[in-house]
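TA notes, week 10

Several of you asked for a full example with nothing omitted. So below is the full record: structure tokens for the whole chain, then the designed sequence directly under it. When grading your own attempts, check the secondary structure regions first.
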């Protein structure tokens, strides 16, 4: 499977006349670093995504920065070398590296054709998200990460992280009423992904708490959009997850299906309109985005065993 190379256009970094030794001494938080390096995919002071090629690497990382945030680096194509707190680290295609807060990061060199992903996570945000999962909090080996292990991902795992990175990037760049919940959920999945590289599949990739968050947001979305939207893909896109995963979460937590919930909302709305209004079947059909009156009638019969007109007659008698 070919991993699609992502291309991101960044504004050119202004030339800041910092002395090299001052750069080494100054500690940058995520908000400062993102502003200094003109990183567009930044969520407040919490999370940022950087997609790099050779030019971006020289532009953004070709100085020694002491950073107060986590940096998760995955090489998609080519090779890169860094010096992290005085230690030289070489990364090949599909290699993953996690650097910790207060480590100094300096890009040394890379191959001509290179693409890498940098997920930057504020330490407080990282720790707050981690605190929601007691099992994971006690299992992430930060002492191990301080020795800068390189995780050699296979193509499948690299593609999995690429997909996660793209979801985070999309969530940052697009407005959404549940943006914070979505990004925090995705960062938690990233933490689980990192833990899996250490422990293997013994760490569950999607824990119950975050599945419950997805489920709650889906119910809110369905309650607001069921009159117009019936497709699983619409709700999955709103949540930045796949339709298959949304369907699995809803069924696992409730025993019902995505369409089952949407159907219940539709049925209850039809019942309310039949009992409390004088709207015709054609008007109700149009309001609820059925293709025609017959489609509404067939849907209602399947749910209730009676026609809409029979239901209205039975519920409006004095």
């Amino acid at each position: 499977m070919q991993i699609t190379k992502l291309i991101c256009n960044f504004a050119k970094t202004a030339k800041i006349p910092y002395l090299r030794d001052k750069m080494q001494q100054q500690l940058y938080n995520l908000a400062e670093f993102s502003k200094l390096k003109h990183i567009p995919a930044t969520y407040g002071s919490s999370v940022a995504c950087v997609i790099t090629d050779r030019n971006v690497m020289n532009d953004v990382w070709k100085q020694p920065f002491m950073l107060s945030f986590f940096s998760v680096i995955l090489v998609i194509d080519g090779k890169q070398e860094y010096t992290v707190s005085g230690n030289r680290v070489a990364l090949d295609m599909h290699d993953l590296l996690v650097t910790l807060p207060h480590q100094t990061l300096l890009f040394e060199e890379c191959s001509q054709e290179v693409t890498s992903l940098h997920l930057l996570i504020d330490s407080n945000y990282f720790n707050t998200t981690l605190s929601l999962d007691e099992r994971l909090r006690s299992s992430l080996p930060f002492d191990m990460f301080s020795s800068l292990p390189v995780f050699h991902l296979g193509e499948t795992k690299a593609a999995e992280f690429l997909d996660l990175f793209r979801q985070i990037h999309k969530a940052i760049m697009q407005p959404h009423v549940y943006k914070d919940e979505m990004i925090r959920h995705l960062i938690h999945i990233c933490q689980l992904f990192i833990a899996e590289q250490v422990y293997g599949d013994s760490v569950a990739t999607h824990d119950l708490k975050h599945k419950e968050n997805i489920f709650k947001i889906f119910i809110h979305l369905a309650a607001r959009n069921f009159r117009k939207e019936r497709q699983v893909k619409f709700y999955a896109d709103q949540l930045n997850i796949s339709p298959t995963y949304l369907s699995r979460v809803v069924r696992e937590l409730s025993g019902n299906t995505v369409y089952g919930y949407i159907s219940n909302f539709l049925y209850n709305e039809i019942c309310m309109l039949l009992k409390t209004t004088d709207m015709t079947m054609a008007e109700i059909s149009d309001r609820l985005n059925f293709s025609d009156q017959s489609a509404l009638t067939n849907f209602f019969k399947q749910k209730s065993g009676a026609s809409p007109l029979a239901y209205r007659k039975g519920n409006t008698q004095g």
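The longest strand covers residues 69-77. Use that as a sanity check on your answer.
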